[in-house]
Write a structure and sequence with these properties.
This protein is an alpha+beta fold. The protein has helices spanning 8-19, 23-36, 65-71, 98-105, 162-179, 204-215, 217-221, 264-273, 313-330, 374-378, 430-447, 466-474, 476-480, 508-520, 528-542, 553-565, 584-590; strands at residues 41-47, 53-58, 107-113, 120-125, 128-129, 133-134, 140-146, 184-189, 195-197, 223-230, 233-240, 252-256, 259-261, 286-291, 297-298, 309-310, 407-412, 416-421, 424-429, 453-463, 485-488, 493-500, 579-583.
């Protein structure tokens, strides 16, 4: 078969396959054009998941008739004037491919008007361009895309449901709206009421306000500010506490010089910063802005421009990891904020009061007849209060409620510690809290040369699958650094001679078997530090106070005091909160006093 040049229509449709992947891709390209046009207000309308209609209207600078006619030609753009401009791209768009690619697979109508000029419109249907015509429009540009992929019906088979496509388009608008809080956005879809994000401004306060608009008040109440700078690279934004991690990565918003990206380097740095705070399968929520010299980043490496390449990738990654860790460490004692209406579903409904006692008041009620209640209460007088029923017992004199986590007052179900603070109360999960404390102790000892060991009086022989035993024996040197000394004991068994001293009376058999399971999933591609931290976390889980253990008041208060001085004490090694707080106002609302 001879080599031949493809017809222009085929070329356009091939190019459209890269640029126009789905309706959300069209929304992204058109909104980016509106942002580059200096708009202060942008309206986006999506109907039928974007297949029937996508309309983007802005109040930007608009286009003159000659520019409008040229804008639908391939590789025509106003954003590049010389080859050197590619080395310092400061706009969102620059290739001049979006409009002709959309026009090749849909019905495209563009109307535009410059300030003081006249409005004109042009239409492109399946790659065929019409002549310019007068239009009715105020200053700015309006772009309508109808019947997307009607010219390439095979592409329709690969689209998801209308709801899914509409949701993807809405996510694009959210990311672009978060990148530019100084611009007002309105999103209209058929599935929901119109959503408007008011213009906020340019400063960090405006960014935080826009983050709250998009991610909601719960994230805003459980987020910490992030700010760092190194060698001309600036990082700013907010990061969610580990306790409010999400089940997917949709709440991770990353921007490079104002451009929304989903770059692997940045996402990997975000995961590394939360490595021992968020469990596998959960994703931290964050909105982070990176700003650096445009010459230090290449944005022309991906068809959708969602990935970038940094000249000094190590610098950027290190800044992101250290900046996030510093911010989270500064707020490491915060746990998730209590809900605004705690336990609302448990509040009992007040039954109608009988008419005969409608005016009853306790202060006017006659005293109960002598002997009515005392005999029943006297039956409990000789019972000493147990450790999980000390709500009426005052805390020891040296444990005032003025501590950040208060003074222990009770233990519930031998699992939860109830502490009184000056402004309310704290409920602590004793196992999760102690697990974090043991983990942090192990990390400190590792950093200082190794974990102290304790020799077993009688070595423990543990039988298991031969493959698991072989894996443990192969990693014996690594485990010895954690204070766990073991060796192979024939096929299908290991002998444990020493254990970490700080684990106390841990279940050695169960711990070693869990470690064997962990090593079976050991990913050699992970950094060594991450793998070692996984081992430490597994050991800490087995060496912590278990749920079901009765604690003395002194033990409970000692746990609270150590939590107050331990980094990241607000979350356990698996990312769950170690404690929750209830303010006095929350409690009063619970009982209808507010």
């Amino acid at each position: 078969m001879p080599v031949r040049l493809l017809p222009p229509v085929v070329i356009d449709r091939i190019a459209a396959g890269e640029v126009v992947e789905r309706p959300a891709s069209v929304v992204k390209e058109l909104v980016e054009n509106a942002l580059d046009a200096g708009s202060s207000r942008i309206e986006v309308v999506v109907d039928g998941g974007g297949r029937r209609l996508i309309r983007v209207a802005d109040d930007g600078i608009g286009m003159a008739p000659s520019d409008l006619e040229l804008a639908v030609e391939r590789h025509a753009t106003s954003k590049l004037t010389a080859e050197s401009d590619l080395l310092a791209i400061a706009t969102l768009g620059f290739r001049g491919e979006a409009l002709p690619s959309i026009g090749a697979v849909a019905k495209l109508l563009i109307a535009s008007r410059t300030q003081g000029g006249e409005a004109h419109q042009i239409e492109v249907v399946a790659g065929r361009k019409s002549a310019l015509r007068p239009a009715a429009l105020t200053a700015g540009t309006r772009v309508e895309v109808r019947d997307l992929f009607f010219a390439t019906p095979a592409r329709l088979k690969f689209l998801k449901s209308e709801r899914a496509e509409s949701s993807a388009a809405a996510d694009v608008v959210k990311r672009l709206a978060m990148s530019r809080p100084d611009i007002g956005f309105t999103l209209v879809t058929e599935e929901r009421d119109p959503v408007t994000y008011a213009a906020r401004g340019h400063d960090i306060a405006a960014r935080l306000a826009r983050v709250g608009d998009i991610l909601g008040p719960e994230f805003r109440a459980n987020a910490v500010p992030v700010s760092a700078e190194k060698e001309g690279v600036r990082l700013a934004g907010v990061a969610g506490l580990p306790a409010v991690a999400r089940g997917n990565a949709l709440s991770q918003y990353l921007f490079v010089n104002g451009r929304p990206v989903k770059d692997k380097l940045l996402l990997g740095a975000l995961r590394a910063a939360y490595a021992d705070l968020v469990p596998a399968g959960r994703f931290a929520a964050a909105a982070l802005w990176l700003e650096l010299d445009p010459r230090e980043v290449d944005v022309n490496v991906h068809p959708a421009k969602t990935e970038v390449r940094f000249r000094d990738a190590g610098l950027v990654r290190g800044l992101l990891v250290s900046g996030l860790r510093a911010a989270l460490h500064g707020e490491s004692h915060r746990s998730a904020a209590a809900p605004a209406r705690p336990f609302q579903t448990l509040r009992p409904m007040s039954p109608p009061r009988p008419a005969g006692i409608a005016g009853w008041r306790p202060e006017t009620s006659p005293a109960a007849p002598p002997g009515l209640c005392e005999p029943r209460q006297a039956a409990f007088a000789d019972l000493a209060p147990s450790a999980d029923a000390r709500a009426g017992q005052a805390a020891p004199a040296n444990e005032p409620a003025g501590h950040p986590l208060g003074a222990a007052r009770a233990q519930l179900h031998t699992t939860y510690i109830i502490a009184e603070t000056e402004g309310g109360l704290v409920i602590v999960d004793q196992h999760a809290a102690h697990e974090r404390l043991v983990y942090e102790r192990m990390k400190r000892q590792l950093a200082n040369g190794g974990i102290a060991r304790q020799m077993l009086l009688v070595p423990a022989v543990i039988e298991m699958d031969p493959d698991d035993a072989a894996r443990l024996a192969a990693r014996a040197e690594v485990l010895a650094g954690f204070g766990l000394v073991l060796e192979g004991f024939g096929p299908g068994a290991v002998m444990v001679r020493e254990v970490p001293a700080l684990l106390g009376e841990a279940d050695v058999v169960k711990m070693v078997r869990d470690l064997a399971d962990h090593l079976a999933e050991w990913d050699d591609a992970l950094p060594l530090e991450r793998r070692l931290l996984h081992v430490a976390a597994t050991m800490a889980c087995h060496g912590s106070v278990r749920a079901g253990r009765r604690l003395k008041p002194e033990e409970m208060n000692a746990l609270l005091r150590e939590m107050e001085t331990t980094p990241n004490a607000g979350q356990c090694n698996h990312g769950r909160p170690t404690y929750v707080t209830l303010s006095l106002a929350d409690i009063e609302r619970l009982f209808g006093r507010r």
